[in-house]
Amino acid sequence: NISQLTIQMNRDDDFFCEEAERKPTKEAYIRPIMSNANVAQYKDARMMPIQKPVPNYYPQQQQQQYYPQPNLVVKPNVKDIVEPVSKSKIQDLPDTYDDDEELVPEQDQVIPDNKMQEEEMDVSTKINLSLKLNHKILQMNSASPQTHPMLLSLAVDEIKTNRKANLDLICVIDHSGSMEGEKLKLLKNTFEYLLTLLTDNDRLCLIIFDHQAMRLTRLIRMTEKGKKISMNKIKSITADGGTDINLGMQHAFKVIKDRRWKNPVTGVFLLSDGLDTNAQYKVKQTLEYYKLKDNFTINSFGYGNDHSPELMNDVAKIKEGAFYYVEKLDQVDECFVDCLGGLLSVIAEDVKIEIKAEPSGIFPKVEITKAYGSEGMWTIDSETKTYSTRIEQLISGKKKDYILMLKIPSSSKELLDHEKNIVLATATCELRSALKQSDIPVVKKCELAVTFFNEAEDFKDNETDKEVYLNYYRVRGAEALDTARRLSDAKEFNEAKKLLTDFKEELSNSALKNEKEVKGLIEEFTAALENIKPEVYEIKGKHTMIQKARVHMEQQSIPMQMGQFSYANCMQTEMVMKAQARKK
User: Fold this and answer.
1) DSSP-based three-state secondary structure for 457
2) Model pTM greater than 0.85?
């Protein structure tokens, strides 16, 4: 009788049977989990069927041996145990993490002041795709080709509704020895506040790591009971051990893969204050190993000045998340809620954008010569010359603006009146709504049509498009910051200084120098010139420049710059302001 099962202990190890619904029918094994604990706290264990253990992906991280025993599978159950967490916890992953708490059916979910209208859930009416050049009118040129910046914009209206997409949030927390003291205290206070922002239909999973890793809680709903369990676990965390980010991320990926139910939006928060050589490559390999088909982002938080900003930024880029450099420890809560505000504003996922030049009889060799963006942002089809990019999660109330350079070949052709409006490029966007379940994707299309004057016709230079040029300065500024950072890494500080100084001077002499965005960029480059000074660079300058280059290239919100740049939506702004106000 399963209910009469008793576990006999004859080693200095704890063993625990994980919950299951049916009696095992195959041979199983016992796995040693942790030392010097009390078997009595596991008295409610139940049997579960044997499953194949997950292969150890990294041989150098070989786990403890399995000890064959008849008819048992023994694993840690961390659902209801509240105890201090130390480095003696498990390293090997259990066979499955399919113990996530069941979601409430959508029709049974309670939505405060439910006034949601069907048309408000139709994201196709809230999204606009557009293309434009820096000039609306151009003149034919028979002597030489002309190249112009082209702006592709995906704009999303601010959707004010009581219904949001529910969230599955997995937090991967570094509790190594360097987190001792004020860092860990502020982190616990931050999580206490974070829990108040999650609703009953959101779910949270807590994972901690030092040189080992373990899951503190399964993926549980943030009801009052769920929040209490989570807070007790957070309060129990102690600092000890080294740093192995990949072990923590393995647990996170397995939680995502094995969960039985899925909320529409999923996000991973990774927080670390330490160094872990080549962790970004290990995390990427682990993600490939699990073959996850889910849409989710990894958002990383580099705590203090001792972490590797390249590593944390690279990990976030794996799944198109944000990197937050938390220079001042008491700002960790602002960074967390800014990121959370973005996740709670997601209205669409799996966004695919394609853009290509459109050859014509007049311009048969028109082409896109460059697409600005972070490394790996764009892919190019060599046959069709189509540029493609993806967005994991699309946020309400924000714009995604891309700058590409369009080369228009020289031509001596005389245009008739009906030939003067010429299509030079087309773009397509396909996405899936996160607010409304549907197998039919939302598709948006647009084209770039420009009016041309003949070379012999009188033509006055027409007014430039301000929005195109502001975005052109933004992406060029981001590229300059990244290049200056790479030069500084190579100790080429004078070259970095010259690059930053030249671009700052260009901005200062621009016709748009009084625009808020340009003023903000000038301030950024003034700060960057300080950050590349050798005595500053390694301490914090590199951290700042890595973050700022990506913030501007991808229009990512960070709470420290909400007044300068319009990269945050209303929810992010309000949540950050509340977090700041509670500290006054």
Assistant:
1) coil
2) no
